[in-house]
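note to self: dont lose this again. the chain is below, predicted strucutre after it. 752 aa total, dont forget to put it in the shared folder this time
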Amino acid sequence: MAVVIACFDRCAASTGARVSRSWLLLLLSSLVPGRAIAQGQFVVPRLQGMIQIDGVVDEAAWDAIPPLPAVMQIPTFNEPPSERTEMRLTYDDEYLYFSCRNYDRDIAGIRATSLRRDDGSFTNDWCVINLDTFNDKETTLGFAVSAGGVRTDVVFSDDGRGAPNFSWNTFWDGAVHRNQEGWFAEIRIPFSSLRFQDDVGRVVMGVIAWRRIARKNELITFPAIPPRWGLLPSLTGASRAQEVVFEDVYRRTPLYVTPYGLGGFGRTRSLNDAETTYDLAIDNATEAGIDLKYGITNNLTLDLTANTDFAQVEADNQVVNLTRFSLFFPERRLFFQERASVFDFSFGGTNRLFHSRRIGLVGGKQARIFGGVRLVGRVGAWDIGVLDMQTGETATLPSENLGVVRLRRQVLNPNSYVGGILTSRATVDGGYNAVYGLDGIVRPFGEEYLTWNWAQSFDDADADSIDVFDRSLARVRWERRGVDGFTYGFDISRAGNSFNPELGFLTRSDYVRVGDNISYGWRPGAESILLRHTLTINGFAFRRNAGGRVESAEVGPQWAFESKAGHILTLAGATIYEDLDESFSLSDDADVPAGSYMFHTGSLRYQAPNADLFRPNARIEAGSFFDGWRVSASFTPTWNASRNLLLSGTYSVDRVRFTPRDQDFTAHVVRGRSQVMVNHALSGVALIQYNSAADIVLANFRIRYNPREGQDLYLVYNELRNTDRFGSIPVLPIVPERTFLVKYSYTFTLEF
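---
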């Protein structure tokens, strides 16, 4: 910290600038050992002078700003950074500015391994600012530049515990410069690209700034956030952010108009009505559509879309399903990304009341979306989300209107809220499904959290039912969050047999579930090569409402440890009980009969350091499986061959044998992905997958030209091939599906 204070004195003296008392207190507070400095509010100094966004960071206006008092987070918390680091924050009427002077005594060791837009890997050296723009202690927006000049914008929801959303994009600038002293970065974010609340020009946001030195697996953060919540929650969690104040910042209301044009062709072979052959259908597409985005206020955004298209979406990864439940696939489409966390209504795991992937995708096929409206933001203390979409008719479904309304607000403290949601699905022939839900999270003290959910569904298939509990789901969860010390989670939920959230995702119905885990984590100390250990006992049980029998249960230990270099090894075991009312099939040659089963399994998983250029992650699991045995293994290597080429792949095998019934099942999934990055604007992705369980090969090729934010050209080619044509009658076609599309979009910006 002596370096930071010395620079503070030198910078102030060299420019004659008077540093605000609040920033001085902020600097001094960082000297208190073990203290997290995200306390109070501090006024961000306004920019005095001109700044050119070129990455050089040599203007006198930067020198007039005191650097943020950053400390090492990992591997050793609250130590001075191993390399001199100066991060600064300022603003003017239109922009927020952030800079990093990342000095480095080993220039050759600076990692710049990719030119990929929205690179989320930790292989690079990074400089990042996270903004909790609503100061809601819930969501942060990340703006990052790598040492190679890659720009990444990302959303971190659920106080850093949700999966990062790299599909979100907005308008901002970033530049990087390297010399013999290190690498330097500048970021400029228009206030018009952010949503926030202002009180007569006074805006309060949460800020977390950090630098990553990849070769050392080192993180340097402001404020001094202990790593006890885990990597992402500690690094991006909004409740850990430092509150800062921007004064005399007023609303901007830009209108973004994005028309698109699309052309291409599709070839599909489908089984005819007589089931004697596969007929060829040719679809030559020429379409156009438009999206509009308007900031009604600083904190409320309206999106309108007409003839929506999602041609640029990447194919889902192939997965072999060894369970009797549906698989969950995430949303990738850009239209649904902004403030998507507002619509979250989770029942735990992948179960949720609203899943936007249900809109416009039927049986894995795209349905035409005529248009829709989306309103997200905040009004006063209320988070608001409204979505309404109209889809076209498909071969299996009539035209539908799909809607969601979500409201929630903070209560008691910044980490507690209550809310409600309403979803509806109505077809032109009179069918309907409607669900309402109420939920809340309360943080009574410390890291203790109480979560509760209640939801009830209504539909035309069960219009006469009056049993409230039969078509509802209720859940209560108490947990202590974190990764250090004693943590736990206890969850109890009940779902009725007729509960049916058609716009959501639910793996089971008609159950009572009890679980979850108890953990203890500790750090061996500064002298150890290990960063942390975690011992966990996981357990849950599902009981059927009808009959009261236990349907599923599982309990077992898990031990995970991580080295300071970033190696992670996880060992786990489990005893599993399953009671099946009916059989389910793994393949044409293997099934699991109805009955009760007790079996045992163990697993070993290795994750290579994120900083390594070659990362050979692997997993193996083996043990009994119902009335047989199972061995599953996967190998997932990733190689940053150069900053222009990223190669990754997966090979997984599942081998199941039921000796008493002389049945066996073996499935292989092979996935190869290559990304070529000619420069920051031009890139291409090739994804080829083979699934032996489905006897298919899928290919997805995409070329993207993105010279600036809001201007995109996509070339997309998809193909599906059958690998076992003669196993069916009639013989399957070699290529049942093939499409080629060209899409261009351009965003015009108008300000009022």
